[in-house]
Write a structure and sequence with these properties.
By secondary structure, this protein is an alpha+beta fold. It has 4 domains: 131 residues, no CATH class; 106 residues, no CATH class; 116 residues; 74 residues. It is 49% helix and 15% strand. It has a 5-stranded antiparallel beta sheet. A hairpin with a 2-residue loop joins strand 3 and strand 4. Helix 7 runs antiparallel to helix 8 and helix 10 crosses helix 13. 26% of the residues are buried.
Length: 473
């Protein structure tokens, strides 16, 4: 008999759930959370005992309503506390016009549910119930089995990633120390190899790293804890993919082609970053035969996983990008801004071509980019911005523009820029005056003196208005 059959374990979305015998009059369910209850056409899913109890009660009462008096007459066999009360009490939850006692431990919550089911005439033998255990509450035999199973798969994943046997052993052995730190920050979770939830892992990872920083004076030890936990996080996130990869052998020639494609497209990227869509399209065009060989990984997401798997220690992978160097920020907006700052003069046409080239979404809002680059760049026409170091606007020229605009606004309170005909009255610049240049100079140099108001959902169709800032009015 296998562990799953012996302990009635079910797997749902990778998590372990235990089946509970609803006829058991003395349940032992501490350190557990409910998951699913079913009875005939009733199905209730809840992650807390309070919500599960109220959910079951609501479904029972909807099908077979009881009067307030009938509910008030229900009594526990194991406690003198009243099940329902007419008045609000501490740890009682509202139900209809009454209040239900929900002040229970996990075990007593199940006894409460059993009491309610029997009060509504439900045969407990017909009920089905699944619950989730914190590792500390799992049977020792089951814990040993699952810890070994997870550890073996983790070793396999590291081996697939081409870690040497010595490196694999170093990682696994270090988890004795890492799990020791874990036990100092959690009573319910004592072994990372028993976790079946990525959310739980992320929370416990941060606490464990914080504990390491508090206990270790050697920065290298702290970095090892962080690095080895990052390996384990990758394994948890991609566990099903590693399982498939263990069965679907990828040839060495295909792996080399993935590496050469990465090297080529990253080196040709203006910012040393590409999106996974660019990786896939480049590989599909250059190596169609090898793409077919990849089997279930012959798609954009699958190829990205393989690239991260085999070249994760050479390049920095952060979904959906690949970078030549590790970056704290790696989003489409970050890459666009980085590209802009690599140029003295740049057009929006160039920015759009850059986005297409590395397969990222274009600019959502032109105004957003103009605002965020305003401290360092000036909009000079409908398509270009120029760095301030290149633009070189003197303090004298700025003062002259300020006087001219203040004079023009005068008592009008506000002027419409595209109806502004006094450009001749402003200093001559290296760029021909136009409404975008005027707005660009105000945005980049005179934002404390003037306010810009624009209308229209599309920036190029907007009408621009200038007024004095309240402090300078």
């Amino acid at each position: 008999m296998g562990i799953e059959e012996k302990y009635k374990i079910r797997y749902i979305d990778g998590r372990r759930y235990y089946e509970f015998d609803m006829t058991n009059p003395l349940p032992c369910l501490e350190n557990t959370t409910p998951y699913l209850f079913s009875y005939r056409d009733i199905l209730v899913c809840a992650g807390s005992w309070n919500r599960m109890t109220l959910g079951i009660l609501s479904e029972l009462d909807r099908r077979n309503p009881k009067s307030d008096e009938e509910l008030l007459s229900i009594r526990y066999k194991w406690s003198k506390c009243v099940v329902f009360s007419r008045t609000r009490r501490t740890n009682y939850s509202p139900f209809r016009d009454l209040y239900l006692d929900t002040n229970h431990t996990s075990s007593h919550s199940m006894m409460n549910i059993q009491c309610l089911l029997e009060a509504y005439g439900v045969d407990l033998k017909e009920c089905f119930f699944l619950y989730h255990c914190h590792p500390v509450a799992e049977p020792e035999e089951a814990k040993a089995h699952f810890a070994k199973e997870t550890k073996d798969e983790f070793v396999q994943a590291l081996t697939i990633r081409r870690f040497s046997p010595a490196s694999v052993k170093a990682v696994i052995d270090s988890f004795q120390i890492i799990n020791g730190l874990l036990r100092k920050v959690s009573k319910s979770f004592t072994d990372f190899f028993l976790l079946d939830s990525l959310n739980n892992f992320c929370s416990l990872r941060d606490k464990t790293i914080a504990k390491a920083k508090g206990e270790f004076f050697d920065q290298k030890k702290i970095e090892l804890v962080e690095r080895y936990l990052s390996y384990y996080e990758d394994f948890l996130r991609n566990r099903s993919s590693y399982r498939r990869l263990a069965d679907e052998k990828i040839s060495e020639a295909a792996i080399i082609c993935i590496g050469s494609t990465l090297r080529k497209i990253i080196s040709s990227s203006p910012v040393g970053v590409v999106a996974r869509g660019k990786l896939y399209s480049s590989f599909a065009i250059a190596h169609p035969t090898f793409l077919k060989e990849l089997g279930s990984f012959a798609n954009e997401q699958g190829l990205y996983f393989l690239a991260a798997c085999y070249y994760g220690r050479k390049y920095f992978f952060k979904e959906p990008y690949v970078s030549a160097t590790k970056r704290i920020k790696l989003t489409g907006d970050d890459l666009i801004i980085e590209f802009v700052y690599s140029k003295e003069i740049i057009s929006f046409d160039e920015i759009n071509k850059f986005c297409q080239r590395i397969h990222i979404n274009g600019i959502d809002s032109r105004k957003w980019l103009l605002d965020i680059t305003a401290p360092d760049y000036v909009e000079v026409d409908s398509n270009r911005i120029v760095s301030k170091s290149k633009f070189q606007l003197s303090e004298e020229t700025i003062e002259s523009i300020t006087r001219g605009l203040k004079s023009e606004i005068g008592e009008k309170k506000e002027i419409r820029v595209d109806e502004y005909f006094s450009f001749w009255n402003l200093p001559q610049l290296d760029y021909e005056w136009n409404k975008y240049l005027l707005v660009g100079i105000v945005r980049s140099y005179l934002s404390k003196t003037f306010l810009i108001r624009d209308t229209g959902a599309i920036y190029s169709d907007s009408r621009f208005y200038l007024s004095l800032n309240g402090n300078d009015a």
